[in-house]
Amino acid sequence: MEITSLKLINFRNFSNLELNFSKNRNLIIGNNGEGKTNIVEAIFVLALTKSFRTNEDDILIKENNNLYKIEGNIKSSFINNYKIIYQDKVKVVKINNNKINKLSDYISNIQVVFFSINDLKLIKDTPNTRRKLINLEISQLNNNYIKYLNYYNKILKQRNTYLKSTFNINKSYLNILDEQLIDYGLKIFNMRKKFINNINDIISNIYNKLGGKGKLFIKYKSDYDDLDKEEILKIYNKYIDKDLNLKSTQYGIHKDDYIFYIDDKDIKNFGSEGQQKNSVIAFKMAELEIFNDTNNDYPILILDDLFSELDIKKIECILDYINRDIQTFITTTDLKKVKNKYLKNSKVFQIKNGEIREDFYE
Q1: Are residues 262 and 317 located together in one domain of the fold?
Q2: Among 34, 57, 70, 344, which residue is least crowded by beta carbons within 10 Å?
Q3: What is the pTM of this model?
Q4: Distance between CA 275 and CA 123 in Å, rounded?
Q5: Alpha-carbon distance 62 to 97, whole Å?
Q6: Does residue 183 sit within a domain?
Q7: Burial letters for 280-292: b for 16+ Cβ neighbours within 10 Å, e otherwise?
Q8: Which of 31-35, 191-195, 255-259 has the lowest mean pLDDT?
Q9: What pLDDT score was predicted for residue 360?
């Protein structure tokens, strides 16, 4: 999969921008604040309808305007045109100029694996951060997942609102909510479990290829693990008093977590910073293979500003691992940081004072 062209109108600091990309490696060079990350952010938004930097679309609009527009041609088996238009707090998505009524029906058409310096904090961060990442990736592989997740969150919100509004529980009503919550929760649990199992099949080998030592694996920690619907329903009933006291649902897949281990060691608490970084890198590289195995096509890979955080050896390991069939976008402040061998068959975009110069290295 590749994005062949991108058009931006009033997106971030670009009033009107049109770019054509290489099917191999694309390097976007510029000082901080010049807009290099805005370009890869636009590709991410085109794929997933939201930014990796903010949940507020209004922030994405160039100052003194009332809309932004992103348009791109995506080549897989054949070329399709995708558009996102955001105006007056309404987002419209189109494929080949046909409006898609639900965002969940749009997502999964364009697959992107995104890796930034913030991802290196994944293991140290909260369970919520890790859940968001897993949700994002599985949604791209199967858009039913995001539908199930939306239904689950809607019912969870209803349940929590009910818990906050009463001290006298109507058990019949609560059981209806609980059964719906469990039905969608089990669907989500099984899809998450399959995804993590697939990652675990290959992540340790990738970790070792990238210079790590030991067996890397991810333990999926979930309240639903090894339980059927009836068993889970009993636990929800058991938690009623606690839920009422805390005014929120204390049990369910919204509490899931993913623990990274090397051999038998939880590397969040006992691993070195180097082990943690290598583990996250291996996870991202494993995702590329999962996407390819599922779709028979590699996703678009975005590497945002890694040269500022990783040493040259780690960066070379990543770039050497990446298959030529993977269209890759790399942002950095200095082209000198990129070795000549990685410039071969690359297109370079240098941004300075709002202008972009393009060069192709054969």
Answers
A1: no
A2: 344
A3: 0.93
A4: 10
A5: 24
A6: yes
A7: bbbbbbbbbbbbb
A8: 31-35
A9: 79
Q: Are 206 and 285 in contact (CB under 8 A)?
A: yes
> DSSP letter at 61?
B
The pLDDT tens digits for 191-230 are 999 999 999 999 999 999 988 899 999 999 999 999 999 9
**154: its two tokens:** 């809607």
**CATH number assigned to the domain comprising residue 262:** 1.20.1050.90
CB contact set of 255 (below 8 Å; sequence gap of 6+): 127, 222, 223
Say if CB 183 and CB 198 are below 8 A apart: no
Query: Largest Cα–Cα distance in the chain?
Result: 73
pLDDT of 313 higher than 90: no
Beta strands across the sheet bearing 328-332: 112-116, 300-304, 328-332, 25-30, 346-352, 355-361
Tokens 């000198």, located at residue: 336
- CA–CA separation, 163 vs 166, rounded Å? 6
Burial 301-339 (b: 16+ CB within 10 A, else e): bbbbbbbeebeeebbebbbeebeeebbbbbbbeeeebbe
Residues 16-25 as b or e (16 or more Cβ within 10 Å = b): ebebebbbbb
Helical segments of 53-123, H only: 103-106
